[in-house]
Amino acid sequence: LAMTTYQSLSGRNGPFQCQAFVTVSQSFDVKVLMRDILLQITQPVNQPSSPSTGAGKGPMEGLLKGMETWNVVQLARILRQQLDNKRYLIVLDDIWSMNAWEGIRFSLPDSNNGSRIVVTTRIRAVAHTCCFHEYDRAYEIKPLTDCESRDLFFKRIFGSSICPEHLEDISAKILGKCGGTPLSIVSIAGLLASKPVQSKDLWEKIYSSLGSEIETNPSLDRLKKILELSYNDLPYHLKTCFLYLSIYPEDHNIRRKTILRRWIAERFVTGKRGLSVFEVAESYFDEFINRSIIQPVTTSFTGKVKTFRVHDVMLEIIVSKSIEDNFITLVGEQN
C-alpha cells in the first residue's frame, strides 16, 4: 500500500520536488539509510530510482563523491541541506524500533511547506512515537472485509469475482482461515491456481492441512502457517531453488537475471527437451510469481519482472528450513 501510494505520487507533475522510499527492517544501519535517501533525492523527480536499489549518476554526483566514507554527522548535515526548503516525500518502510526512527528523524527538516514523511510499522508503539506533531496521524490498517477478501481470492484464481457454485462453501471456509490478510489470501489463491484441476476434494484437503487451531492464532502465526503451506506444496525441484533465496538479507531487492544465473551455476536447473537451461530457470521463476510467494518490485516496459523480494515472514520460514536441511549455514545476523 505504501509503495502504491509512493508510485502514484511520482512523476514530472507530482506534488513533490524530491522523494525517496527506503526499507528499514530489523537489522538497520542508519548510515546506509541516509546514503540511500541522498542517492534517491538527487535524482530528477520524473526519473526516480528504484527504492532501495541505489541510483545512477545524478546532478549532485560531485557533492556526493566519497559519501561511503562519511560518518553519521556528515551524512545528516548534507541530507538536511538537500531537503531544506524543498517539498519532499520520504517513505520509511518497515520500522521495527523507536531507535530506528530517532536515528533518522532529525535529518528530515520541517520547512512547513507540505513535505510528508510516511512510516510503516507493525508495532503500534512505534507508530505513535513517530507522531510527534499534533497534526501527525497513525493509521491502523484493517483486515479486508468478507466481500473484499472474496473478490481478491476469486480474481487471483479465476480471473473474475465469480466462484463456481460447487466451491462456494469451501472457499468461505478457507477465507475464514485467512482472517482478511491480503498476503494470506493471495498465497493460498496462488497455491490453488497452480493446480490443473479445481476440485472440491482438493480444496477440502488444503483447508484441512491448515489445521483447526489456526483461526484462534494471532494474525502473524496464522500468516506463517499459510505461507509454510505454500512452501510445502512446491515440487522438490522448486523447493531447492526457493531455499536458495535464503542467502539474501531481509527486504533485499533481488535481480531476476542474477538469481537465474545463480540457480544454473549451482546446477539446480537442467535443460529439457526443446528448452535451454536458462528458459527452464525462467519457467521456475514464473512459477514462483504465479504462486505469489515472491513479490515483484520493478518490472520492464514489457511487464517482465526485473527485481523482486521475499516477504520477511516467508524469508524467516525458508531460512529455518534451510538450516534444518543443512542447506545453508547462518553466520551471525542475516544482514
Automatic annotation (TrEMBL):
Signal peptide: none annotated. Gene3D superfamilies: Helical domain of apoptotic protease-activating factors, P-loop containing nucleotide triphosphate hydrolases, Winged helix-like DNA-binding domain superfamily/Winged helix DNA-binding domain. InterPro entries: Apaf_helical (IPR042197), Disease_R_plants (IPR044974), NB-ARC (IPR002182), P-loop_NTPase (IPR027417), WH-like_DNA-bd_sf (IPR036388), WHD_DRP (IPR058922). GO terms for molecular function: ADP binding. Residues 247-318 form the Disease resistance protein winged helix domain. Keywords: Plant defense, Repeat. GO terms for biological process: defense response to bacterium; innate immune response-activating signaling pathway; plant-type hypersensitive response. The keyword Transmembrane does not apply. Residues 6-158 form the NB-ARC domain. PANTHER family: DISEASE RESISTANCE PROTEIN RP, OS07G0599100 PROTEIN. This is Os07g40810-like protein. It comes from Oryza rufipogon.
